[in-house]
Amino acid sequence: MIPFDLPKRKERLRQLHQELSRPDLWTDGERAVTLQQEEGRLRAEIEEIERLEKEAKDLAEIAHLVEEDDPELFEEIKRHLDQLERKLAEVEAKALLSGPHDACDAILSITPGAGGTDAQDWAEMLARMYRRWAESHGFGFEVLDYGPGEAAGLKRFTALIRGPNAYGLLKTERGVHRLVRLSPFDASHRRHTSFAAVDVIPDVGNEVTVEIREEDLEWETFRSSGPGGQHMQKNETAVRVLHKPTGIVVTCQSERSQFRNRELALKILKARLAELEERKREEELAKIRGQLPEISFGSQIRSYVLHPYKLVKDLRTGVEVSDVDSVLDGDLDPFIYPALKKRSQAG
After folding, report:
1. For residue 52, how many other CB atoms are within 10 A of its CB?
2. pLDDT digits (tens, 9 = 90+) for 278-301
3. Ordered domains of the chain (ranges, CATH)
4. What is the pTM of this model?
């Protein structure tokens, strides 16, 4: 467990209060907003740490008074202790989020690998898993693009996840996810292995300046290919844009207005171009240090086995969870927090 250093945090909060009370603060509106956001995050962090410290102290006092022959009460204390440990892990993980874009919203993309319908169905299972994770954290989850498969599942998927530190928490989910199961699409019900790639980039908004020239863009419009039924669009409101210099393609069909979809497509393109530049810088640094750069699409990070046994294993941290159903229902924190800690230690 990392030291939370409450006195240092409280001193920084006191300094922020002084800065925010200055009469001339809003002469620099951008700096004022940044200070307000930092003050809000720091205040919430201090309150959470103090609350958890009180819970731990109360739990220790209760445990000291419990009679040894009261197994039910012991079990209840153990349950509260497990909850407290998970909350502490969450606070610790948030304390590790110091990257330049960790506080940003996240743009999540899922692409099925080879394997036809099984891989496309796996991609849709992952989309549901991340939706449930976002909902469990009170985050917004807006589907920006959805391409259904011919028989089941999806061919492509992009969503915007809105919430405090959404990108910082999800960035370690980038990579290839592997599923082993008895295929529901195989007449012989044989075991199949499916792959899907997850990509996560920060929604940089106006934080960075990315020059996009109109002559470098090639636009295409088409009808929405959403889930169908009443959600199908009769007009060509969906858009696809190709950034010719890089070959990056962005599709957006979440809105009924073509103009709004163009705005969102440019927003995603800007984020992907910024991420591309960041990865190039990381690769150059890796070459200088003599390290091979990580190729995220080709990096398998986690296996989900449903047959012949049930187990989810993170290949980076070694964390294993046998309750596969809870993981597929969005319980990803047992994987996210250790991955963040390991990444921080490696950095």
Report:
1. 16
2. 777 667 655 644 544 443 345 689
3. 6-95 (1.20.58.410), 103-300+336-347 (3.30.70.1660)
4. 0.70
